[in-house]
Amino acid sequence: MKWLIVSFLFLIPSPTAACEFQAQLGKNTNPVPAQWAISAARKHSLCGTLISTRTQHNGKHDSLHKLGARDTIILVPNDISVSRPPSVEIIYWFHGCGGFSQRSFQTRLIPQWSRILRETSHRPIIVVSEMPWSTNTRTRCGRQGRVWNKKNQFFLYTQEIETLISHHLRLGVQFKRVIMGHSAGGSAIASAAVIGGLCKAMPQAVIFSDAVYGNWFGRSWRGCLRQYKKKHDARIIVLNVPGGKPWRAFRKWSKRSRRDALKVESPRLRGKWRHALVGDNALLFYYGYFPNFTYRSI
User: Do the domain assignments include residue 298?
Assistant: First the structure.
């Protein structure tokens, strides 16, 4: 694959020369989301690399996308290469309607990632998969569930992405996968669980961030999560704003499936939570920032 190495120094002044955040843009990828992410990373003084790429297994050809194909953005902290760990956490993020936007990177993902890197010992890689309902498509709330709809497609996507990351790091590492879907991203989890090979990818956690509309959780559970949980005891986490549509849908499923519901982490969120705020804090939830699940601006 040919790469265009872009520093963006001429576009975005770096706040410090000591800490660099570089970009590697694949041929014909969209530079705009990369600029948003680079700008936010430099604002938070992060050191790392952004890789923007098109993939065989996610949106290589998309006639409803303004550029004809969807991208994946990968955020890699620099100190992984220095510490050379035997395993690396990797978070696959499935965005909601109109996501893969400036807000997705500058308000939602980069600030959370920055806190985790600065305040904990964790060094997760973030993989932001552009969905068919991204801000760059003509279907910003359409085509929900129409991704990972071929056999083992998501599993093959993880292999493609992780091969690229291993090549970048020049390390042979094991990846500890975490799958997160916010809002419409819950439909992507459901599709991956039913046919896309989500459980074949062996995640250590699957998180629904206010993302269990309709039957999405039921499909995910029946698709493979039920058996996977039984065999591997992975964490299945559902974060819902009390009283919202996802909350009502999950409550309905829980009443029908009481024994299975005991196997799912579904904390009752307290305080001034709303839909967007769950997404803005979903990574922090996973890393233990809200032990009593009460909203506070952190």
Answer: no
